[in-house]
Amino acid sequence: MQKLSVLGIGILFSSACSFTPQLAPELSVPNKPLLKKEIVFLTYNAEQSPLKIKSVQLPAHPIHQSDKVRIDSKSLQLTGEQKHNLETLLTEKGLIVTDNNNADYVLTVQQFSVNKQPDLELPLIKPQGQTQQKAANLAKANSSIACANSEVKISFRLNHRKSADVVWISQAGLSSHTYINQPVVYKFTQQQIVTNEQNILDFVRKQNTEEARKERFDKVVTIPQYQIGYNTSPLTKVSGICSAQQVSSITSEIETHLITELIAKLKVQ
Predict the structure, then answer these.
(1) Which pLDDT value is given to residue 141?
(2) HEC per residue, the chain
(3) How far apart are CA 37 and CA 231, in angstroms?
């Protein structure tokens, strides 16, 4: 009787095993591909216009060191800094700057103007090296930029006080872009991203349920491949002067530069 019982249990255990469902192995989430990141610099520049300067000095009244020069107070208004710079430059020439009406010469500022010019189109300098196609397309779509531009003009006249003869006339004009003389650089970042990662995670999770593992036993299941997209940042300016506000901020520098260039043309014996 005991032998029959053992035999019966064995038969039941064997029957139970024969009805245990076979499960396919669990799927693993595939490793993501190596994603590339590219930083692209776009450099813009244009041809420089030369400094326009003219200086004519007449020989009738030669100017000597220690001659006295008065800056005409009725001429166009200079800022305190500009007047100081002008006085310093004349002193470095060996002249004596004075407010005395009996000075040997009178210097008049005839023109001191800042004129807004049409925006200047700066073409893109071809990026060095190879870029991804989407980055190349973005560079092509931004083949030029428009930057603010202005022209500063200054002119001087020097008269011999006693005779009122004109001794020296000079004038100069310079565009802000020529004075800056540096490219405008923008950059953008292009990052590869996986666009279907969540879909793959959901697929693997669904295929690893017991029901799905039963169904796919002895079947081949292909996990979808990762799909790659691109995330491109906005263009960001890295260096250079381009906006109207930036151009306006260097106007006084340009004026000082022109004053220096013009006084350098004055011949003092």
Answers:
(1) 83
(2) CHHHHHHHHHHHHHHHHHCCCCCCCCCCCCCCCCCCEEEEEEEECCCCCCCEEEEEECCCCCCCCCCEEEECCCCCCCCHHHHHHHHHHHHHCCCEECCCCCCCEEEEEEEEEEEEEEEEEEEEECCCCCCCHHHHHHHHHCCEEEEEEEEEEEEEEEEECCCCCEEEEEEEEEEHHHHHCCCEEEEEEEEEEECCHHHHHHHHHHHCCHHHHHHCCCCCCCCCCCCEEEEECCCEEEECCCCHHHHHHCHHHHHHHHHHHHHHHCCCC
(3) 10
CB-based burial of residue 69 (10 Å sphere; 0-12 exposed, 13-18 middle, 19+ buried)? buried
State pLDDT tens for residues 238-264: 999 999 999 999 998 999 999 999 999
Contact 269, 176 (CB under 8 A): no
**pLDDT tens readout for residues 180-192:** 888 999 988 889 9
Q: What are phi and psi of 142, to 5 degrees?
A: -120, 55
Expressed in angstroms, the distance from the first to the final Cα of the chain is 141
The token pair at 115 is 């004129």
pLDDT tens profile 158-210: 999 999 999 999 999 999 988 988 899 998 888 999 999 999 999 999 999 99
Point out which residues pair with 52 in neighbouring strands.
173
